[in-house]
Specification:
6 strands, 6-stranded mixed sheet, alpha/beta, 5 helices
């Protein structure tokens, strides 16, 4: 899996990539970092494809406004919300260790498709009680996740 990535044209950022707990990751911190971190949860990848990391679609907006972002490949594919939550939270908790920077003053989580489901699950009280990697996010934006049908949400 190609984890390295380039800065957006016209931006000055520090980029980090590697593997954490079996999951690939990317982190990008703008030169004018405001101390806030946005965790990005990607959508469904299928069952037998390589683990991959995606940059958030709002990457340019985040960088322009001083937000750092981080994204995980998750340690497994399929529709595994628990793996997405645990691996995303583990990366959020490792941010300072991996970058050498201060702890973020605020942590947010966003996600598209299955990543929206992961985002919603990451902020639930039940997840907080049962998670191995506990993160209290200051805000969340689930985009297009399986959120409306509670039976389906609970099933996954």
């Amino acid at each position: 899996t190609a984890l390295a990535f380039e800065a957006l044209p016209g931006t000055t950022t520090t980029r980090f990539h590697g593997v954490l707990g079996g999951a690939g990751y990317r982190i990008e911190v703008p030169e004018n970092w405001n101390g806030r971190l946005v965790m990005y949860a990607h959508g469904y990848r299928g069952t037998n494809v390589p683990l991959t990391v995606s940059n958030p679609s709002i990457r340019a907006h985040l960088i322009a406004n001083g937000y750092a972002w981080a994204a995980s490949s998750y340690s497994k594919n399929y529709y595994d919300v628990r793996a997405g939550v645990e691996d995303t939270n583990a990366l959020a908790l490792a941010f300072s260790r991996l970058t050498g920077l201060a702890e973020p003053t605020r942590r947010y989580i966003i996600g598209h498709s299955m990543g929206g489901h992961i985002t919603g699950a990451a902020i639930e009280e039940e997840t907080w009680r049962t998670a191995n990697n506990k993160v209290r996010y200051h805000g969340a934006v689930p985009m297009c996740g399986v959120m409306g049908d509670t039976e389906l949400f609970d099933y996954f």
